[in-house]
Design a protein that fits this description.
This protein is α/β, with parallel strands linked by helices. The protein is 28% helix and 19% strand. The chain contains 16 helices and 23 strands. Strand 2, helix 1 and strand 3 form a beta-alpha-beta unit. The chain is globular. It starts with a strand and ends in a 13-residue tail after the last strand.
């Protein structure tokens, strides 16, 4: 392990007066105000990356805290939806696409000089602290040579934003910590405080700011209500040995409660379609969905009810009666509390309640993370959880996602004409769009070492994963970026081929074709021949932000049962040179590896590899 240090904070944004007031600070590098947030963001991140050694600039991960921006942008979109509904009309295209925060990273990637992983945290009160903690732990454990931490904060007195970024790097020539002691430089309640970037929290309109050495700490490590002070973290543990494994899964879909219920429906080729009744859909093009039968109590949104059911199954499958103390919770599929539109109809299906406490998981606030990466949010959550486990920031990680049918997500897909008016047919030559599904999923992760210590046999190893924010356009999938993720996930796992691919394949004209093109590129490079691929979205629909959870269950069950699932709804498969699109299930003994794709709007791309031997013993590469 190494000793991390942080460089000078680079500050920019769109509020000229605020930036001018910072120029006297010797510990800040203040840039000129940008004409737009995207321009200011690119300017600040470019300057921060240029402070890294040339060989690290292109691939350095960027961890971005963007709670304010997410609340602001989502509130504006919900307001437009309310106006359209009140007028009895559909949204106009110009009103539809509220930019995902990751689109700012997409703008940066578009310059062509940065191609590293990018992650967006939107946790209430704690996003910046979580970003700093992640960067410090990952560099200290040697997972990355450098990480750039970035924060986007809204000016409370206007419509502008301030952007701040700082590189965290390994200090050359300094010895690592003694084995068994906290990682040197990681903030602990009884250990050293790192030399983090100087705080900017004492400045008017600076928002949460980067925590720094001058900031006060709390005794128990919980994030304070105002988010302006750095909490003292619990003692960090040495970097983990061995791979990260999946110890339990839980799933709720339109087939009902349970991962095995979904799996059997998929193998039977059934389609859990129904008419949309959660809200008035009369103004939308499509009313065919995969809706659950779950009903919540009076005044309670369906969203937490779905999560509760999936959580119970996941903990039971993981052999846990309760979560260990050092548990990281990563949630996808919801946004922070939206006070400016708190009275909007059914807002609880997409936004957290004001006093959200991790949907009942019982983890401390600083360990409850929200991630925003559109329909790839779940895979990005798996990547974050894996790194926290490997660098000793957590002993157990729980990744959860939920998609409750709501008029806000539906309105966006409707105006983009992304929904099908019948039922989805993934990978079909005559596919016509997305069939939205409802459900929730929970995945329990831990290191193989910890699972073995408690006598638990994991379901699979997360042997390789790659997440990238790249590509052109808001909604188009980039075959180039998708192929890059697949290539990197395979390389991390030390593999050149797989036994099965579970495709993202939502049934859209452009997305399915681009995904197969990306897979064919990988197949041509690595000599694949008739590698089977299929998709589950014709069975239970597209769970949007939670779409990764049925995919993980499918991959894990295929490894367990030696069966390759088909693609419900498929009639005429798209052509592929190096792959074979499956219409029906096929028995396949000795399945050892499954590649899973997960893509989303806003340039969010991810792919990961799950592995297991036929005898039930886990496989992993030297890279973990």
């Amino acid at each position: 392990m190494t000793v991390p240090t942080a460089d000078t904070v680079v500050v920019g944004g769109t509020v000229r007066d605020l930036l001018d007031g910072l120029r006297s600070r010797p510990d800040l590098s203040v840039l000129a105000a940008g004409d737009s947030l995207s321009a200011a963001f690119v300017q600040v991140l470019t300057a921060a990356l240029e402070r890294l050694p040339a060989e690290r600039r292109g691939a350095a991960p960027v961890v971005m805290a963007a709670t304010d921006y997410c609340v602001w942008a989502t509130s504006r979109y919900v307001g437009r939806c309310a106006e359209a509904e009140a007028g009895g009309r559909r949204l106009r295209p110009s009103e539809a696409m509220t930019p995902e925060p990751a689109q700012l990273l997409q703008e940066l990637a578009g310059l062509g000089t940065w191609h590293g992983p990018g992650y967006v945290l939107i946790s209430p009160h704690a996003a910046t602290w979580q970003a700093v903690r992640w960067a410090w732990g990952a560099v200290s454990a040697g997972l990355h040579g450098a990480v750039v931490v970035c924060e986007v904060v809204r000016d409370p007195d206007g419509e502008g934003f301030r952007v701040a970024a700082a590189p965290v790097t390994a200090t050359p020539g300094l010895p690592g910590p003694t084995p068994g002691l906290p990682a040197a430089g990681l903030p602990t309640s009884d250990g050293p405080v790192p030399d983090l970037p100087a705080p900017v929290t004492d400045l008017p309109g600076a928002g949460t700011g980067f925590p720094g050495p001058a900031a006060a700490t709390t005794a128990n490590g919980t994030a304070p209500e105002d988010g302006t002070r750095r909490p003292a973290a619990r003692r960090s543990r040495p970097a983990a040995r061995g791979p990260v494994v999946i110890s339990g899964t839980g799933l709720v879909t339109a087939f009902g409660d349970g991962a095995d219920v979904f799996w059997q429906g998929l193998l039977d080729g059934r389609r859990a379609t129904s008419d949309l009744t959660r809200f008035d859909a009369s103004r939308f093009r499509s009313r065919t969905v995969c809706q659950t039968e779950v009903e919540a109590g009076p005044g309670r949104p369906v969203r937490p009810e779905l999560v509760d059911r999936a959580r119970a199954e996941a903990l039971r499958e993981a052999g846990l009666t309760e979560l260990p103390e050092r548990t990281l919770l990563v949630s996808a599929g919801v946004v922070p509390h939206l006070p400016s539109v708190a009275d909007a109809p059914r807002i609880g299906e997409i936004a957290l309640e004001p006093d959200w406490a991790g949907d009942g998981f019982g983890v401390a606030r600083q360990d409850a993370v929200l991630m925003a990466h559109a329909c790839a949010s779940g895979a990005f959550g798996l990547a974050m959880a894996r790194e926290w486990l490997l660098c000793g920031l957590a002993d157990t990680a729980v990744v959860t996602g939920v998609s409750a049918l709501n008029s806000y997500d539906y309105a966006c897909l409707d105006v983009l004409r992304a929904t099908t008016t019948s039922a989805a047919r993934p990978f079909d030559q005559d596919r016509s769009g997305v069939m939205v599904g409802e459900g929730a999923g929970v995945i329990v992760l831990e290191t193989a070492e910890r699972a073995a210590a408690r006598g638990h046999l994991p379901l699979a190893a997360l042997s390789g994963i790659s997440c990238r924010v790249a590509g052109q356009g808001v909604s188009a999938l980039s075959a180039h970026a998708g192929a890059a993720c697949m290539r990197e996930a395979l390389a991390m796992a030390g593999r050149t081929t797989v036994d099965y691919v579970h495709g993202h394949a939502p049934g859209t004209r452009q997305g399915d074709e681009a995904e197969l093109l990306a897979l064919d590129r990988i197949g041509a490079e690595l000599g694949w021949r008739d590698v089977p691929v299929s998709s589950c979205k014709g069975a239970a629909g597209h769970l949007l932000h939670a779409s990764v959870f049925p995919a993980v269950v499918t991959a894990v069950r295929a490894l367990r049962d030696g069966v390759l699932p088909g693609t419900p709804g498929l009639r005429t498969p798209l052509d592929a040179r190096h792959l074979r699109v499956l219409r029906d299930p096929e028995p396949r003994e000795g399945i050892r590896s499954v590649l899973v794709d997960n893509f989303g709007f806003g340039g969010n791309n991810a792919a990961f590899l799950l592995t297991r031997t036929a005898a039930g013993h886990l496989e992993w590469s030297a890279h973990g």
